[in-house]
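Please think about what follows:
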Amino acid sequence: MDLVLKAGAAGIYHLDMNGELLRCAIGKGGVRADKREGDGATPVGRFPLRRIFYRRDRLAPPPGCRAAIEITPDQGWSDDPADPDNYNRLVALPYQASHERLMREDAVYDVVVELGYNDDPPVPGRGSAIFMHVARPDYSGTEGCIALALPDLLRVLEECGGDGAIVVPRDLA
């Protein structure tokens, strides 16, 4: 199932799930066809859902998802273009190069879906850690990810069984 990003009035965005519009947050840098590390933009393209991670200490595995991976304190995601061997990859912490921790204090990464962006193979500097994850209550902009309210994110994952893709149309850039 493809989930298509749509722009609404006043900078509000939605994911179209079979005709149902689910409010979402996108990158605070808008949508860009020429995504770069650190620009805060959501990239244009079609990005398959890859692995699903979740905080077992906060919720049950997402319903309908095969092989959801429990987030542990030793997991991070390399976002350092100077680290070409592991750039845009899951890494074990502690880790010397720049990275994000997957186990966060806030709820934003309680469920994280790795999107197939810049991963086959990763090109240093084109952007990393583009995920679908939990939105902040005010739907404030992300660093380039797509974020939904937790109930909507869980529903999406249940509907698609962890398969599918996010489509960010070029005309939104």
